[in-house]
Amino acid sequence: MKKKMAIVLSAILACSMGMTAMAAPSPSIQQETVQNVTVNTSVTVTGTPQVSSISSEASAVLAGTTFRNAAGQAVDASSVRVVVAPSDLASMQESAGEIAAAMTTDASTIYNFTGLSSLALTDNTDTLNVLDQVYVGLQDDNGDTVSHNGSVSTTFLLRDILGGETMEEGETIQALYQRADGSWVVLPVVIRNGVVAIALPAFSAPVKVVFLLAKGTPMEDVQVTVRSPQT
Known about the structure:
The chain is of the alpha+beta class. It has one domain (2-18, 26-215). 16% of the residues lie in helices and 36% in strands. It has helices at 2-16, 89-104, 158-162, and strands at 36-39, 50-53, 59-61, 66-69, 81-86, 110-112, 127-139, 146-157, 171-178, 184-187, 189-192, 195-203, 207-215. The strands form 2 sheets. Strands 1, 2, 5, 6, 7, 9, 10 and 13 form an 8-stranded mixed sheet that branches. Strands 3, 4, 8, 11 and 12 form a 5-stranded antiparallel sheet that branches. It starts with a helix and ends in a 16-residue tail after the last strand. Residues 1-23 form the signal peptide.
């Protein structure tokens, strides 16, 4: 399992090298008609947060990434923990509505940080299909919030994200996180051997990450030549 995680994280970090701190709304996100909105009710939306070292086999840090506590003091990476907390069904439903509104109106903005020149956010039936939602944050050894400036990656099991859903041919997983201003960012995702890895750009507080079932080809590898999308 450690080797499998390391391979996936190596690929996702290569993709995150092409991410920028800021981007304009990206036309590379396909203009889609949302025929329906569904929220997966079979996933586990209760339980205690999962805490692991950012240096563990389930996480990785892009070279040059720095960490600071609330006082602005530098925190060594060896003391940083990744905290993944489950969401609840009501929050997932709220996120589904917000993403649908961002796709079809000017209510909010969606940014494409994946490096892909074109991507979809609906599944093969043109449904906005919300599979799962979690909150990802960083803490130090004392449990205090840590911010980062760079890119960190963490992994999930594909079966946990899918719950009772099935990923059909021509479908993949897309991951979005919501910024403090309410806008959404589509993140780099790599799927290999049942493991899903995502790369998160800089954040100063726990962020909401939403997983969608979407049209596309699961990406198992990325090249270090990947760059941020044209905007």
